Amino acid sequence: xxxxxxxxxxxxxxxxxxxxxxxxxxxxxxxxxxxxxxxxxxxxxxxxxxxxxxxxxxxxxxxxxxxxxxxxxxxxxxxxxxxxxxxxxxxxxxxxxxxxxxxxxxxxxxxxxxxxxxxxxxxxxxxxxxxxxxxxxxxxxxxxxxxxxxxxxxxxxxxxxxxxxxxxxxxxxxxxxxxxxxxxxxxxxxxxxxxxxxxxxxxxxxxxxxxxxxxxxxxxxxxxxxxxxxxxxxxxxxxxxxxxxxxxxxxxxxxxxxxxxxxxxxxxxxxxxxxxxxxxxxxxxxxxxxxxxxxxxxxxxxxxxxxxxxxxxxxxxxxxxxxxxxxxxxxxxxxxxxxxxxxxxxxxxxxxxxxxxxxxxxxxxxxxxxxxxxxxxxxxxxxxxxxxxxxxxxxxxxxxxxxxxxxxxxxxxxxxxxxxxxxxxxxxxxxxxxxxxxxxxxxxxxxxxxxxxxxxxxxxxxxxxxxxxxxxxxxxxxxxxxxxxxxxxxxxxxxxxxxxxxxxxxxxxxxxxxxxxxxxxxxxxxxxxxxxxxxxxxxxxxxxxxxxxxxxxxxxxxxxxxxxxxxxxxxxxxxxxxxxxxxxxxxxxxxxxxxxxxxxxxxxxxxxxxxxxxxxxxxxx
Length: 621
Known about the structure:
Elements: H1 7-41, H2 47-93, H3 105-114, H4 126-153, H5 157-185, H6 187-201, H7 203-212, H8 215-242, H9 244-267, H10 273-290, H11 295-316, E1 361-368, E2 378-385, E3 390-394, H12 401-408, E4 416-421, E5 424-425, H13 426-429, H14 431-435, E6 438-441, H15 452-457, H16 464-473, H17 477-482, H18 503-519, E7 524-528, H19 536-546, E8 554-558, H20 562-565, E9 570-575, E10 578-583, H21 585-591, H22 594-607
Parallel strand pairs: 3-8, 3-9, 6-7, 7-8
Antiparallel strand pairs: 1-2, 1-4, 4-5, 9-10
Helix pairs in contact: 1-2, 1-4, 1-10, 2-4, 3-11, 4-10, 4-11, 5-8, 5-9, 5-10, 6-8, 9-10, 16-18, 21-22
């Protein structure tokens, strides 16, 4: 993964790590040279000592400089690796042509783990794991150089020092990993403790906490979870502290033996003072280098991330209907994230031919049930939608209206039956190319914390004239006139100069987003409760504008307000996943069936002054 860190930054990081681990050996040799020069010359001010003293000073200064630049360089490499990892994860998640796999709880858990957003010390990112591995590899290189320095003076010092040092590392690593596992075992209690702690200080929840007098209960619940997590951790801390004497002996005994032996040799003339200096410095460096076990935590914290990513590759890589998008060919690259998929050879699998005109849409015996459920949402549904038609879908909640639009958008595949455009199965067209033909406004639309212009264009090339026209047709112009910076105003209070919009105003932004997509080449407009936040008069004005779009596109409308859908060319009433009634407003009212009954009930409620907006009022300052 170091390639993702950049050749320059990653290479520089490796050089720094290498220099740092050989620095103790260089310091030992430079110190010995100074001692030897002083002993032989006897006059510190003479030229003989100047060179070794300069080398020692340069070594010490270099060590400090390397230590100062190590952390920022490491952070640069880690952040680049993590950014590349998350880009690959995003591309992998968008590889699935439908959302069926992504909605599985197991896949959601894998994505959350692979996303690598640490919330505690036991969780680490791929970048941290990669740099930790570099540090360990280079550390062993440093131990080799230290061993060579020691062998030069006394070969027996290598086993005397290295074996206890590695035993020290083994014990430290085992204790740390055991502590890691104990902490990880209580992570669920840790997360619940964090949740209850946030609740206790949250302004919104603070009102109910005080009104119902539950502050004691919340505090105690959080404390119980915190203690359930930390008691085993504290017990392990006590056990580790009681066993410190073992590791202390592993450090003290070999160092004392080495220092006494070399001192004895030097005192009896068998070794020089310079040699003793080298041994003293290098011996301590062995334990400093080998005895650090914290890299093991960074490895362990990164392993779940990579395992989750590899499992996602196995799961999402099996999607046979993956269709990679090509930004060069896409006429509207911003109507959603650009999907990524395995590279395909144009010769082996040519890009499906795009539709050249507004197609005839056909639902042929379509049935659908959501994965993991046993109830059919749609059952053997047959529906034909002519080009340029304004079709309204109505029915009670759960009738299958929104599900039908999601199937049309290729977000799910029918359990049975086929959806065709001009006789071609949309699955054969390819879901990604097919979605370029659609502009969809979902009921649970996304409110991006971007400027008004970016919220409408969504990354596409900006045609300001088309944007202004889309805003007029969606009823957004009045809102833009009241924004502090017009199109450039951020639609989020979290950004400088940003504002909040009401639900109705946001709905107009999203309508403008869909109309702008139509102006950039989409042929089918799907609106799922697009004006539920608007009052009846504003809704009527918006739909009066949208009906003009049927000259250039097919419009499929879902609305709970039957007074609005009466303008549709055709109204389809769904009940229990089937078409119960179909026709124009006048035809269905004259039929006197279920639609006529629902329309009469709503008309009576509106005459009584009932306003069924989901949300009223504005949030603009």
